[in-house]
Amino acid sequence: MSLGSVISASRNAAGMSIDGLSEATSIRAGLLREMENDKFVNCGGETYARGHLRNIAVALKVNPETFLSLYVEEQSTEQRKMQDLLTETNVLKPPKEKKNVSWKALASISLACIVVAGVAQIVISNSKTVTVELMQPTPTPSVSPSESASSVESASPSANTEPVEVAMTGAIVVEISASRGKSWIFASDATGKTLFSGQLRSGSIRTIASDAIINLRVGNAGALDLTVNGKKMDSLGANGEVVNLSFDENS
Known about the structure:
By secondary structure, this protein is α+β, with helices and mostly antiparallel strands. It has helices spanning 3-13, 18-25, 29-36, 46-60, 64-74, 82-88, 103-126, 145-155; strands spanning 172-177, 183-188, 194-200, 205-210, 214-218, 225-228, 231-232, 243-247. The strands form 2 sheets. The protein has a 4-stranded antiparallel β-sheet with strand order 4-1-6-7, with no helix packed on it. Residues 128-135 and 143-169 have low confidence and may be disordered.
């Protein structure tokens, strides 16, 4: 599923037209149509393209990393680290610069170490020799095989003890398998907290758990298999389709 088709599917899922998205992002409708057709040559360069993608993601309430990671994978011609690209589009804060230590400071530290080592050598050479008498270890009384077996038997749990089963009351566990292609996933709980957001590569599996509710928005639904609390779900949708799902403790 290409970046352009993901943008188009997300826009349709949000119930927004091209003109509506253009008004929300101040991006020309014609340029938005080109981007949904995987044409980014008229964006003004990669920096502006990533800025447009971030604005579109915010307007559609999608995690910007979803669009930016696909752009880097499919469109970018620069060999740069993902951290640099996300920093440039204000997704991440720029790392703090490391301060360089001057050669004068290093020379001062080295000189101080030499002086300390010399003083320590003088003190050690003038000190008296101290004889330390080592304590002889007390022999441990031997234990007969019968006593050893008796100790092990008394320490082992009773044969009649039943195993204790710890139950996860009210927990929801959703396993998503990209069995037939790649997709993107956005999962949140009942409070709106993001549980997972990102791309799921073909053949990979993602497990998401929550104590109350799990809300899912998935792209390319036809490529996914879903298991909820150990129960495999029916087909989620067609290839390329964006589907919204919600699961609680009764699912």
